[in-house]
Input
Amino acid sequence: MAIFPMFLLCFMACFTTILAYTYRDEQILLHTLFANYSSTIRPVDQQSQATAVQADFRLLEILSFDDREGVLKTISILTITWLDEKIRWNTSVYDIGNIYVSPSSVWRPRIFLNNPASEQLQIESGNKADDRVQYQSDGRAIYTYNGQTTTRCDANILYFPFDKHICELNFVSYEPTSRVFLVAQTLGFVVPQSRNKEWEVLTVTMSQFEIRVASGVNQSNVKAAITFQRKPGFVILNMFLPIPCFGFINILVFLLPESSGERVSFSVTILLTLVFFLNLVGESLPPVSDPISIFNVIIMTQLLNSFLIVISTLFTLVAFEGGQKDINVQQSVRRVVSVMNEIVPKRNKVYSDTIPKGQKEEDADSVKESHDESKDQETVPSDRHPTWNVVSEVTNKFYFWLFLLLFIVECSVYLILMIFYWCNTPLL
Output
């Protein structure tokens, strides 16, 4: 809270006229001004005329933003000014440029926060007894609310961890616009702003509007919109980068030899790791369905891929065991494997299911018989009837290229969405 004394110094320098006067001079002036003054009556001669109140909001620091609860805590300043027709004096007579009086002894606009996240409806400082209203000789009154605000703000975590949020603080006058109306206006003073380690403030804008509360009765509002974004460095290093690394390593399970016996344990370990990261992200994001974080969808996709990889790994092990036991390959399996073999890149094909040009089918069968009689019949497959060893090899290559393609497509889609978002043209 050490920033408030600095602000008050700047504030007084902007709005204070320094003249030479004594204690007795100010005492006489205050006695004269408040002799017939009432703090319960609006200080204008024509009560049918509304009082214009200029409001200027300044954000000093974002203390915290709980995106799960949707609560924003800030340190901010709301300065309001209005014209008090009953507190005026001639500087040539009293030689005083400014006076400071207690807020309880004068009339001032009653302004409250319309969207608080706590019971506190105003920006309140630590010690209300130290508050003062500054008056200039022409009747201009200046009052500052400074302190902590706690407001409601729904988080938009669609592009987490590169998410941006717009939180609004709505200040409303207790009195209708026929008596008091608020005007959003920049008063021209500069205040120091502290930086938050997790959030970066982009813009702070102000606007004014009216809302109808009853028939013929409107209330004046001033809205301060704070746009800020997450500093994603910590999330990228600890949650974002490990996900594609695990996704890519998971695909390499099909390059492990079946005889090593580590395939299932390897793929299941990656699956459990992705489940852990999904729980970690779930604890960091709000439990809402609108919108769902794209990052969360990416983890779920990788989790689904890992689940399918475990099933595919079990199938390749079954095929490997069939080759060890010299079991015949069923016709339906032959057809599926033939399709897989045609899909994989040409240089990775294990066998050819077509009869070479100029060779009759009977010749192909004779070639098969000669291969069956050879010592290497388990390693040299026939052109027409693959063994279980061939099935295992074909499925390994097919699953490797299939899941690698899925991994590339998923990462590319996510990167495209992020690039368009950074260019301020989001696709979603």
The mean pLDDT is 79.
